[in-house]
């Protein structure tokens, strides 16, 4: 545990139940605890803490929110061109032609600037899960992830997948890239 301020604690990656419980107890005693956990999305973080043996009621009392993030590669601006994805790629991405009618699909054709990959640079995408009373109550009663997601979506939650799809719609990246780093909802 690294302390810079008596009210703030930065904990490195939490990998075990003992560290998880210490972080929760610190948060319950009034400290702002920031930490990282390897997980696929914000909801997976909740599962990880519960499976590490953290008592759900203490956990929800301590938790303010979760941020899950990924990096996606951006289409190379030096060799960018318009693109039309195949129906099979749309289907694998959970999309139909009608849903993407107004999207601007782009891809890099490959050039020296991008080392012929079609991608140059990266962009962070992140989902932010804020815990309200309804969500805390559902977590404490061990509600399934489907119910947690439904509550969160009703409170304005935007999934990392949706944020990635928005980047595709703007022509910043490709469906292939977001399918590599996110899961179809």
What topology emerges from the helices and strands here?
Blueprint: E1 2-5, E2 8-13, H1 17-28, E3 32-36, H2 42-51, H3 56-62, E4 65-75, E5 80-82, H4 87-92, E6 106-108, E7 119-130, H5 133-140, H6 145-154, H7 160-169, H8 175-181
Parallel strand pairs: 2-3
Antiparallel strand pairs: 1-2, 4-7, 5-6
Written overview of the protein:
By secondary structure, the protein is of the alpha+beta class. It is built from eight helices and seven strands. The chain has helices at residues 17-28, 42-51, 56-62, 87-92, 133-140, 145-154, 160-169, 175-181; strands at 2-5, 8-13, 32-36, 65-75, 80-82, 106-108, 119-130. A hairpin with a 2-residue loop joins strand 1 (2-5) and strand 2 (8-13). The longest helix is centred in the N-terminal third of the chain and has 12 residues, at 17-28. The radius of gyration is 20 Å and the shape is elongated. The model has no long low-confidence stretch (mean pLDDT 92).
Summarize the structure.
With 185 residues, the chain is an alpha+beta fold. The chain is 38% helix and 24% strand. It has a three-stranded mixed beta sheet, covered by helices on one side. A two-stranded antiparallel ribbon has the order 4-7.
